[in-house]
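Students often ask why we bother encoding 3D structure as a string. The short answer is that it lets us treat folding as translation between two languages. Here is a chain of 224 residues written in the first language.
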Amino acid sequence: MPETDQRTARPTVRPPHGFELPPLTVMLRCALPRFIEGVIAPVAVFYAAFVLLGLNGGLVAAVLWVYGGIAWRKVRGHPVPGMLLLAALGVTVRAALAAATGSPVVYFLQPTLGTLLVSMTFLASVPLNRPLAQKIATDMVPMPEAFLRQERVRRFFLRISLLWALVFAANAAISLWVLFHESIGTYLWVRTGLVTALGAAAAGVSILGFNRCLRHVGAAPAAL
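And here it is in the second language, the structure alphabet:
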């Protein structure tokens, strides 16, 4: 039996997908601290130490920042995200290679090439009809299989996977050019601004597009 809206005395129909996205402001409040901790702060910490103490000082500061974040969570009894553990492993390897070669370019080359690999992964998932954007979205927000099987939803995730492939490719291409043609300071600020601007724009398009997809899917039964 459909429920009744007491204000209008009309029956209401629940959307078939059975879930709703949290408000955008709530999502931003949750994502912003992690973005600052994982993207903005490490760049600022490394660059400040690099200017004051040289390459080795910057490398040590970057490693201490990541492991300090893990230790802080452990002391407070908070779970440590898997991505943070992977970041700790990555920054350790990068710092060791940069210290061995004496080149800060080596430290920043790996994540830039990693960005290019992520772009290729998003792109490859489209012709395979297994869009990576769908996998990431369902990891964050569980979705019913009946909803995911709908043609409109499938097309949406394919298009969003292409969008993110282009975003990561542009990020990697510009970052590589700046890394090899400009100073490390210029690279840090350009890459940070690039990641922030492109990521925010792509995330906004993704969220707005998904909300639109939800509205279309939710309105479909009403037309029957």
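Translate back mentally: The chain has two domains: 22-102, 104-224. Keep this in mind for the problem set.
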